[in-house]
Amino acid sequence: MTSTSIIVSIIIGALAGFLAGKLMKGAGFGFIVNLLVGIVGGFIGGNLLAWLGIHWGTTFIGALVTSVIGACLLLWIISLIKK
Description:
Layout: H1 3-23, H2 31-51, H3 60-82
């Protein structure tokens, strides 16, 4: 993994965590946790969509949408555990 791809992954993770926090109505936890949620969400979303047979390629928008889907799913699971 090159330094550029690491930086792009961090940017996508931060955006995905931020957007997922907004979509889940205040489920955000701050920048650092949203970043981690976005990165883990990218992994979850990528595996989930691949399992469903959906492949959006490696474009920035495709990676962002995949990460947001996974991050929303992760935030939903976290909200179930917190209750």
